[in-house]
Amino acid sequence: MSQAQILTELSSIRDWLRYTVSQFESSDIFFGHGTSNAYDEAVWLIFGFLHLPHDTIENFLDASLTGKEKKDLLFLIEKRIKDKIPTAYLLNEAWLRDYKFYVDERVIVPRSLIAESLSENLYPWIDDPEKIFSALDLCSGSGCLGIMMAHSFQNAIIDLVDLSEKALQVAEININHYGLNDRTELIQSDLFDALQDKKYDLIISNPPYVNQASVDSFPMEFLKEPSMALGSGEEGLDHTIRIINEAKHYLNDDGILIVEIGHNKEVLLNKFPTLKFQWLDVSLGNDFVFMLQKSQLPD
After folding, report:
1. Is-contact 162 168, C-beta < 8 A?
2. Among 132, 120, 114, which residue's Cα sits nearest to residue 256?
3. Helix/strand/coil for 204
4. What tens digit of pLDDT does each residue of 178-195 get?
5. Cα separation, 46 vs 22, whole angstroms
6. Upper half-sphere CA count for residue 27 (Cβ side, 13 Å)
7. Which residues are within 8 A (CB) of 264 and not within 5 positions of it... i.e. 6 or more apart?
């Protein structure tokens, strides 16, 4: 079907949704930046492009698109399929739980299991959110987890730390959007290196944790993301090992560390056989995010 035919024959959002799902299903695109199937990806692309709410799609399915909307949407669909550009970058938006964030190629697309626990104020690991006065989002990227922490812990000052200056520029956009300038500080640092004598009640981190074998077999969509934010050495634990070994010096008494490690639990346990890891129960199970109290961390 020619472009002219597509633009003529597809009229309603329902038409475009059906067409986009069909195109995605027959392509070799990879789902992994917020969706897991062609339908959800198509809804995200179409409704995000049209600035319509994703949770009430039935209200808009029979609405017609303008000529310009059709041309622009078709362009995005073709970019998604031919160039393997993640939908988040095409729309400059990503979602974690109920939070919307600006993203572009300067940061990885937000996708953290820690967000699930943050939406519940990290209960039961933290029983009184009002007693968290200082917190650190280490390897902050777009700033998504730091911003969620600011909402969960209303009395806390939040530091957002990343090695990438470009990532911090994106984080600043999101901080401005949520009006959190007075409660956050952006710090460029290689993990803890620039933090000097700072101490926190809570440190969370979703660091790079992809092992080299997985990096070598990445689908094209992941190659669009900053490589420094994904890979972490041969076993995927270079950053995590540093964090565990250094975190104690940056925690207040009774402070806690929470880190996401992907599929590296077995390797991590072999590296630190004596540590008393506690594992958060998230949607994928209890093998992906650990918690350690300051007293449990190595000196």
Report:
1. yes
2. 132
3. strand
4. 999 999 999 999 999 999
5. 14
6. 22
7. 209, 211, 235, 236, 237, 240
